[in-house]
What does this fold into?
Amino acid sequence: MEYRKLTMLFALLFAALVTRAQDNKLAIADSTAEQLYNAGNWKQLIRFVNQSVAESVDSPTLRFKAGYAYMLTGNYKAAIYQFNRVLLKEPQNATAYLYGYYCNTYINNNNAAFYNASHLDTATLRAIKLSTFGLTDAVLESGIKLPNSNERDNGFFERAGIGLRLSWRLQLDQSFMFFKQNIFRSGYIDYFNQTGKTDRQFEYYAKAKYSLTKNISLLGAYHYLHTSYRSNIYQSNLGLLGIKYDTRYIDLQGDINFGKLINKTLKQYDAKVDFYPLGNLNLYTTSRASILNLSGVTHFIYSQSVGFKVLNKTWLETAATFGNQDDYLDANGLYVYNAIDPTKFKCGESVFYQLGNHALLNLNYFYEKKTDIYRAVNYNQNSVTLGITWKF
It folds into this structure.
């Protein structure tokens, strides 16, 4: 019995000594981090905190200082990760929420930004000019498609969009679109004796984004298309359900598109990976794999894009899409590739220029390899789109 008591006593003594040693290590780490923080030595501070955490010396104070250092050095994804670690232990830390809000806005992640803003007090929200309900952005796009075919005229595309914040967790994006192209086929009359030549399409698109947590979002979208070709009228309805999960350097998304498109049953399954190796928009990649089932016929489509900052206010993005894109849905169902002739391959370049604090200009060029559905011959098409996004 005495032996057991002695063993327990030694165990308690050892635990107390370990705890005291750990507290001493933490006190030394906090002191060193404070010195580096006050000196503005951000890179060394980051290395020191990461090394301390690797050695099991961890605290919200250390994490906060590392997050601040990451934020000032432009690694916003790493900063968000550190601030989230702070909030796990200190859920009332208003400054961590505020900095999390800013870092997410810098990488265009409005869902997470507004989720963080929901935890700020009224005075802070008033200072940063933010309210529960409001406009988030407005978009205008105008494009022309130039087919290298004697039997196809130029196509024209227009889009106007508006984004709304309905609550801190819920956003709604809406777009109205119009497409027109004259289809020239000399002497051709189909079996309905229809001779009209113009393909017209009016569209309405709405996407809702709901922040389930600070790094998990739910997506829902609806796309209505009113298509007229020759004397036929088609009304199509498409939907999307998806989920997005943000991690330290990678964002993952899975979604399913479904509905009827020009009397065809459509199902499309997408898996998307966004990668930010520098933790910001100075370099990023997007990889997207899709399985499209159209009335029982299945196609695999792969899309890859790489973007990087080339000048202070200028970004370039290179993109390519491989596979049969007949009735393919892109950008969360915003763009529907249901032109007369299917696209077999697509690649292009986009230029983004930040014009002031609110306006972002973009110019896109895309080359498409298409197939004439009536004659089964290939031709090339060049597309140019000019757009402007205004962020409120």
